[in-house]
């Protein structure tokens, strides 16, 4: 019975993995096809559905070396913004989470409840107020409009607070007796113990900013400062949609995320499943 259960479990996992990877494979192979061939074999299930008949790298060349739509510039812009936001989110939200988890101050429960209530507000509801705020500050068409509103993550505070709450108070008291200040205790004891959830939050934040489309489209008008997802959408216009170039651009934009996840997936899984400090 155990062998059958194990076989069934792995069979289901393999099927789910295949179903999940098929769109990625089709995207990569589609990016390697001429436009005329892209949908030619989509109505029949055969090897040419995934294997190009006339493979080409022209789509990638057209995307990378497009002077009117400088894709590498957009990748650099997105990498810069996503990296800065990720660092700031980890720094600011980890301190806030630690305060909610371990420090005592008046009104802590009320403030935390207000923070958590913000999680149920859809992002679309805050678009107009945030836009007006950026306009009043004079931050439109600048990276500040992309970075500063994204520094606070209510989910990040919640995630890290749950982890910090499991750190034994005795460890913090021992550090205090040894003469360590609160910032030193946070930097030398708390943060090293929180590497998995920090990496989890960092990956989520980086991915969210890498895939951000609506907010950059609203606040950035200068093409030289635009983000990668807006650049991909630019291949679709009133004249038509060049799906080959969209697939090529999407493939290029996916590579950094895949590389990042491959190196950090172990910590990501630990951060998702962690519920306390392992001794």
How would you describe this protein?
- With 279 residues, this protein is mainly alpha-helical.
- The chain has a domain at 70-234: MetI-like (MetI-like fold, Orthogonal Bundle).
- 66% of the residues lie in helices and 1% in strands.
- The protein contains 13 helices and two strands; from the N terminus they run ααααααααααααββα.
- It has helices at residues 2-31, 58-64, 71-102, 108-117, 127-137, 144-147, 154-164, 169-177, 182-193, 195-210, 214-219, 228-233, 243-273; strands at residues 236-237, 240-241.
- A two-stranded antiparallel sheet has the order 1-2.
- A hairpin with a 2-residue loop joins strand 1 and strand 2.
- Helix 1 (2-31) packs antiparallel against helix 13 and helix 3 (71-102) packs antiparallel against helix 10 (195-210).
- The longest helix is centred in the first third of the chain and has 32 residues, at 71-102.
- It is globular.
- The two termini are 35 Å apart.
């Amino acid at each position: 019975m155990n062998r059958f259960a194990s076989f069934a479990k792995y069979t289901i996992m393999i099927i789910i993995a295949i179903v999940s990877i098929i769109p990625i494979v089709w995207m990569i192979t589609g990016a390697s096809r001429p436009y005329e061939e892209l949908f030619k074999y989509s109505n029949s299930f055969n090897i040419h559905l995934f294997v190009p008949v006339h493979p080409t790298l022209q789509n990638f060349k057209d995307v990378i070396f497009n002077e009117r739509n400088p894709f590498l510039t957009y990748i650099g812009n997105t990498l810069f913004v996503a990296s800065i936001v990720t660092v700031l989110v980890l720094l600011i939200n980890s301190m806030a989470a630690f305060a909610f988890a371990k420090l005592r101050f008046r009104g802590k429960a009320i403030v935390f409840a207000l923070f958590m209530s913000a999680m149920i507000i859809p992002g679309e509801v805050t678009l107009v107020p945030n836009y007006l705020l950026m306009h009043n500050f004079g931050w439109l068409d600048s990276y500040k409009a992309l970075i500063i509103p994204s520094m606070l993550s209510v989910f990040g505070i919640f995630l890290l607070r749950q982890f910090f709450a499991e750190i034994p108070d005795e460890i913090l008291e021992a550090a205090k007796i040894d003469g360590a200040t609160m910032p030193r205790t946070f930097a030398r004891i708390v943060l090293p113990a929180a590497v998995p959830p920090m990496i989890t939050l960092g990956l989520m934040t980086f991915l969210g900013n890498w895939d951000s489309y609506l907010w950059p489209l609203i606040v950035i008008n200068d093409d030289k400062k635009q983000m990668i997802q807006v650049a991909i959408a630019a291949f679709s216009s009133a004249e038509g949609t060049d799906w080959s170039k969209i697939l090529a651009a999407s493939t290029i934009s996916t590579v950094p995320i895949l590389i990042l996840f491959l190196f950090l997936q172990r910590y990501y899984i630990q951060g998702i499943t962690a519920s306390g400090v392992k001794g």
